[in-house]
């Protein structure tokens, strides 16, 4: 069986959550006899096609962007050519240009769309896009939500609930590098012996301004790993407030990131908007047995982090509640350790990459067996 994934970006060019999910699916389905192609866009002069851990990545030239939506003329032809040889087309939502390509090429193959997130920020453009979005979602064979929480709270998914199934995002712990003893020693010597950790791209919805506010008046060491569009703005705020316990470490290699996950006391994940549809780095904290702090935003974060079991869940945009949660874990190490243990057990029960891969493999086979084709006008 051959599956074609279509999304605006992909690993190794970019390292976001959706890209990681596509990588895990493409990498993991090989052992079930599935060949994978991925087509994505790039603004750089890179090789058009490369092998990535057993699957093939095809790049098309990014021509321009409007409101974070990439457009590419050449990708239309390349998608059409690759789709001819695919048994299943796997889309990743949201990306409005993808919807256009779906209808322009009129490829009649079984199709699935993983619904990663509602469109939250572009409310005015959403009004224009909504008819195309609804037509696209109605035309695909199957829709996958990444958590039951998101399915229950997304008004869009409710409209198509008869074709929606839930497949949680999974991670393969064995694919993460084991830090060398020297690397562990390096970070032990540089960091506090007990600290809170945030990992992620520094974007508007990550709630780091709330974490900075919560850090005021405390001496909890907080280390922030990642880079992003509002990084400098947040650094300026930390300097303005004179906070000596909040530290930005920048974007780090995976080995360093794993070392920090192993060494940290707890993972804090203050995302406060539904743009945070799942929370890969929150799941990484669970995978390494750390107690978790997150906000209740009606998404997968609260499917990963169960209140008072795997960690603490606080109201969004509430720095006082966030500070109280941090203080509770800090002052109750036995409870924190038990929460971390439960978080890891929950990872192994629900969130391994193999479970996700098996579910997608079964879905692909069902679609092909049933001959469930797009009903294009």
Could you describe the 3D structure shown?
- Helices cover 43% and strands 19% of the residues.
- Strands 3-4-2-1-7-8-9-10 form an eight-stranded mixed sheet, with helices on both faces. A six-stranded parallel sheet has the order 13-12-11-14-15-16, sandwiched between helices.
- The protein has helices at residues 17-28, 73-84, 96-105, 123-139, 148-153, 155-159, 181-190, 208-215, 231-241, 254-263, 280-287, 301-304, 319-331, 333-350, 353-370, and strands at residues 2-6, 35-42, 49-52, 55-61, 64-66, 69-71, 88-93, 111-115, 142-145, 164-166, 196-199, 222-225, 246-250, 266-269, 292-295, 311-314.
- The radius of gyration is 21 Å and the shape is globular.
- The protein is α/β, with parallel strands linked by helices.
- The model has no long low-confidence stretch (mean pLDDT 95).
- It has two domains: 2-171 and 353-369, Glycogen Phosphorylase B (Rossmann fold, 3-Layer(aba) Sandwich); 173-350, Rossmann fold (3-Layer(aba) Sandwich).
- The longest helix has 18 residues, at 333-350.
The span between the termini is: 27 Å
Number of E-type strands: 16
Write the CATH architecture name of the largest domain. Answer: 3-Layer(aba) Sandwich
* Percent range of helical residues: 40-55%
The strands making up the biggest β-sheet line up spatially as 3-4-2-1-7-8-9-10
CATH H-level homologous superfamily name of the largest domain? Glycogen Phosphorylase B
Radius of gyration: 21 Å
CATH topology-level fold name of the largest domain: Rossmann fold
CATH class of the largest domain: Alpha Beta
């Amino acid at each position: 069986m051959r599956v074609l994934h279509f999304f605006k970006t992909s690993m190794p060019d970019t390292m976001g959550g959706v890209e990681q999910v596509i990588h895990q699916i493409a990498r993991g389905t090989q052992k079930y006899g599935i060949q994978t192609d991925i087509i994505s866009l790039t603004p750089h002069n890179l090789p058009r096609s490369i092998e990535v851990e057993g699957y093939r990545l095809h790049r098309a030239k990014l021509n321009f962007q409007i409101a974070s939506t990439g457009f590419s003329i050449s990708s239309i032809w390349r998608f059409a050519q690759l789709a001819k040889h695919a048994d299943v087309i796997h889309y990743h939502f949201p990306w409005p240009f993808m919807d256009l390509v779906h209808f322009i090429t009129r490829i009649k193959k079984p199709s699935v769309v993983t619904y990663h997130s509602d469109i939250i920020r572009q409310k005015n453009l959403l009004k224009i896009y909504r008819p195309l979005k609804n037509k696209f979602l109605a035309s695909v064979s199957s829709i996958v939500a990444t958590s039951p929480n998101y399915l229950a709270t997304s008004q869009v998914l409710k409209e198509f609930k008869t074709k929606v199934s839930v497949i949680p995002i999974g991670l393969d712990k064995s694919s993460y590098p084991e830090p060398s003893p020297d690397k562990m020693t390096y970070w032990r010597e540089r960091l506090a012996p007990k600290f809170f950790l945030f990992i992620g791209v520094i974007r508007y919805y990550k709630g780091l301004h709330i974490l900075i506010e919560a850090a005021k008046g405390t001496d909890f060491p907080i280390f922030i790993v990642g880079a992003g569009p509002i990084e400098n703005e947040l650094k300026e705020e930390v300097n303005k407030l004179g906070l000596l316990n909040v530290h930005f470490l920048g974007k780090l290699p995976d080995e360093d990131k794993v070392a920090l996950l192993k060494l940290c006391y707890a993972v804090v994940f203050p995302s406060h908007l539904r743009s945070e549809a799942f929370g890969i780095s929150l799941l990484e904290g669970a995978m390494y047995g750390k107690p978790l702090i997150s906000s209740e935003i009606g998404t997968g974060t609260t499917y990963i982090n169960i209140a008072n079991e795997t960690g603490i869940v606080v109201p969004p945009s509430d720095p006082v509640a966030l500070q109280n949660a941090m203080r509770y874990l800090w002052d109750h190490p036995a409870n924190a350790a038990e929460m971390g243990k439960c978080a890891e057990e929950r990872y192994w029960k629900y969130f391994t990459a193999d479970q996700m891969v098996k579910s997608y493999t079964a879905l692909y086979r069902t679609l092909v067996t049933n001959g469930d084709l797009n009903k294009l006008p």
